[in-house]
Write a structure and sequence with these properties.
Blueprint (H helix, E strand, L loop, with lengths): L26 H5 L21 E6 L5 E8 L2 E8 L8 E5 L12 E7 L4 E12 L2 E12 L4 E5 L5 E9 L6 E7 L12 E6 L5 E5 L7 E4 L5 E7 L5 E6 L8 E7 L11 E2 L5 E5 L6 E6 L4 E7 L6 E6 L6 E7 L3 E5 L2 H14 L4 E6 L5 E6 L7 E6 L5 E5 L13 E7 L5 E7 L10 E5 L18 H7 L3 E5 L9 H5 L8 H15 L3 E11 L1 H12 L6 E5 L5 H7 L1 H12 L3 H6 L13 E6 L8 H12 L8 E6 L9 H18 L3
Parallel strand pairs: 30-31, 30-32, 32-33, 33-34, 34-35
Antiparallel strand pairs: 1-2, 2-3, 3-4, 5-6, 6-7, 7-8, 9-10, 10-11, 11-12, 13-14, 14-15, 15-16, 17-18, 18-19, 19-20, 21-22, 22-23, 24-25, 25-26, 26-27, 28-29, 29-31
Length: 667
């Protein structure tokens, strides 16, 4: 058995150049969009750049900000001082430096303050054991004063670990779930729970490995209360529960679940004993009270007609539910807490209702980090002082774009060919305002269990394409999350068929309005979106002029063999169907059917979807008589991963996309 080695040198502070906090002009001057890019075209490379600041979070005393910042073409985790403009950010880690011999595979995926001095960092890599791929998540603490990094619970952990709970006051400590190989092969896959001091690394056993528990859950007071187990082969979910730390576990639920179904169990258990759950019992996920005595759902607290909620906003001290997050056309927050509701109203006064998203606050709720933008505008990050009412800008999204208004974005609905309404995000090219019969890019999201919204696209693809004259539509096709259980369930055995028709129907709708020319359409996507683009080139060439497939799955039987945990036997059959059906909807297994030019892009370091998927497609296309450079173009990026962790790979992708479109579907 190979244990993960730890290289503390990877976490050493690195010297880079980065912008510090900028205390700026009055808010009114920041709200008015800059005119820098009116009548000008933004270079496509700008859209491939990382944001200056992302994921900012305040320390409890409000004096420090942990965030990912852009430095030398990478995203790096850093700590910034609040109110000290001359102090350079302290860099903690770069994703590329965490990679060791697997460049680009490890990355910082989370971070949170345990107190004013200690930051908890989550690191993930995609690893393989015994032929099965898994997300290997590990945690480490960073002491801001000593600048030391301490791995937490790594030495006794096999495969990934999971954070169950973290302290919010007193000595910094966490509850960590891990699989300990010392427990024996019969408990492989069954985790134990340990409490770890985040300063010393000292461990204390909390829950020993249980043969029927694959995942544990803790309440907001740090007590392990629940254990669950799901079989990807049978679809059975089992839930065990205990009311307090002294009681034994009892089975409260054991049933075969549908694809993406949720059981009626508590999601949040507060310190005072009250609990809440997110349930879709009425078809859409909503927040409900939950009775821990009867283990039954209580009254509805909040829901949105026609949409699932994203989840509750738990108060920083774990004492209450402050509000909820949900997404209709855009991401939104609704606060129950009177103070947070008042702060949100104050912030929305200059920026406009629905244009502000609070991302973090200090323990006293006197310093508030928030982002603000309207659709089509890159979001800037600000710091608000409630005592003085002063607002300072932490960073623009991009120093090049600032707060420019770019290509307008809206949420639309169109009817699929079977009559079902489909919500989509539409981005219109600002340089062709009022024009008709424009070229179109259909840009399906990955997943497929995900969704697009009208907020700023983190990859910049929709804006980049619109900037160069294309209408861009991003359909939330069948299977997209956020639209209720029936819409998610509608993806079952619909890959490559009905889900593909949903994308094609967007073309018909826009053509019927005269917005686009149906003879000038291309499909582009990444991951599942890359699969859809490949399927379009193989199945629906009469509807498209070209396709662009990034990190796409072209051979579904090979993908299921490669990653057994992606769906599991039960979910694979439920979602995709039999082995024969998998072959039918695998575009790469029908190379002679590709009838339009396709750009195929893949990272050689992609472990989520292996590069063999695209290499094999290229070989099959050649075997079917297709000519490279005419029928297809293949771009393999040597250091790119599934998550596009390097800015130069993102920029190269956009450059190659533009070159390909200029040839096959010019704007």
């Amino acid at each position: 058995m190979t244990m993960v080695s730890v290289n503390l040198r990877l976490f050493a502070a690195l010297a880079v150049t980065a912008s510090s906090v900028a205390w700026t002009a009055p808010v009114a001057a920041q709200v008015k969009p800059a005119a820098d890019w009116e009548g000008k075209t933004v270079p496509i490379e700008v859209f491939g750049q990382f944001p200056l600041v992302a994921g900012a979070t305040l320390s409890p005393d409000g004096r420090w900000i942990a965030a990912k910042i852009r430095a030398q073409g990478q995203q790096v985790l850093a700590i910034l001082a609040v109110g000290q403009p001359g102090v350079q950010p302290r860099i903690i880690a770069r994703d590329s430096d965490l990679s060791g011999d697997k460049i680009g595979q490890r990355q910082v995926i989370s971070y949170r303050w345990l107190n004013n001095e200690v930051l908890l960092i989550g690191i993930s890599s995609r690893d393989n054991f015994g032929g099965d791929w898994f997300d290997n998540v590990r945690f480490a603490s960073y002491d801001r004063t000593s600048q030391k990094v301490l791995p937490l619970g790594w030495d006794k952990a096999f495969a990934g670990t999971s954070l169950l709970w973290a302290s919010r006051d007193g000595p910094p400590r966490i509850l960590l779930e891990r699989i300990n190989p010392a427990n024996g092969t019969e408990l492989l896959g069954k985790p134990e729970v340990v409490e770890i001091d985040a300063v010393t690394g000292k461990e204390q056993m909390v829950m020993r490995a249980n043969p029927v528990v694959s995942d544990w859950s803790a309440d907001e007071a740090g007590v392990v209360r629940m254990g669950t187990s799901f079989s990807g082969d049978t679809g059975r979910l089992t839930v065990l529960y205990r009311p307090d730390a002294k009681s034994g576990l009892k089975t409260i639920f054991s049933e075969v679940m549908g694809l993406n179904a949720r059981p009626s169990v508590p999601d949040v258990m507060l310190k005072d004993g009250t609990a809440y759950t997110v349930s879709a019992k009425d078809g859409y996920e909503a927040l409900y009270e939950f009775d821990l005595t009867t283990m039954k759902i209580g009254k509805k607290v909040f829901g949105v007609d026609g949409y699932d909620i994203d989840g509750p906003l738990v108060a920083r001290d774990g004492s209450s539910i402050n509000g909820v997050q949900f997404t209709t056309g855009r991401g939104q927050q609704l606060y129950f807490s009177p103070r947070m509701k008042e702060i949100q109203a104050v912030l929305e006064e200059p920026f406009g209702k629905g244009n502000v998203r609070i991302v973090s606050n200090d323990a006293a709720q006197t310093r508030i980090l928030f982002q603000a933008s309207v659709p089509g505008q890159p979001p800037a990050t600000y710091l608000f002082e409630t005592a003085s009412g002063a607002t300072g800008r932490l960073a623009w999204y991009s120093d090049t774009l600032k707060n420019a208004m770019l290509n307008p974005v809206s949420t639309v609905r169109y009817a699929a060919s079977d009559g079902k309404p489909i919500e989509a995000i539409l981005t219109m090219p600002r340089h062709r305002a009022g024009q008709k019969n424009l070229p179109l890019i259909v840009l399906p999201h990955g997943g497929p269990w995900a969704r697009d919204d009208a907020d700023w696209d983190a990859y910049g693809w929709a804006q980049a394409l619109a900037e160069y004259g294309y209408v861009v539509i991003q359909p939330n096709y069948r299977g997209s999350t956020g639209y209720g259980t029936a819409w998610t369930k509608a993806s079952e055995k619909a890959w490559g068929y009905r889900m593909q028709d949903d994308l094609n129907d967007a073309v018909s709708w826009l053509a019927g309005q005269g917005t686009i020319d149906p003879k000038r359409v291309c499909m582009m996507g990444w991951s599942y979106g890359g699969y859809a683009a490949s399927r379009a080139a193989q199945r629906d060439g009469a509807k498209y002029r070209c396709a662009i497939s990034g990190a796409g799955v072209h051979d579904l039987p090979a993908m299921v063999r490669y990653d057994k945990n992606y769906l599991g036997t039960f979910r694979a059959k439920q979602a995709l169907g039999s082995a024969g059906e998998l072959v039918d909807v695998s575009p790469g297994l029908h190379p002679r059917d590709y009838s339009i030019p396709i750009l195929i892009v893949h990272g050689a370091k992609d472990i989520r979807v292996p590069v063999s998927q695209s290499r094999d497609l290229v070989a099959r296309l050649k075997g079917a008589g297709k000519v490279e450079g005419r029928d297809f173009v293949y771009l393999e990026q040597p250091l790119n991963t599934h998550n596009l962790l390097r800015e130069e790979d993102r920029v190269q992708l956009l450059q190659e996309v533009k070159k390909f479109l200029d040839q096959h579907n010019p704007a």
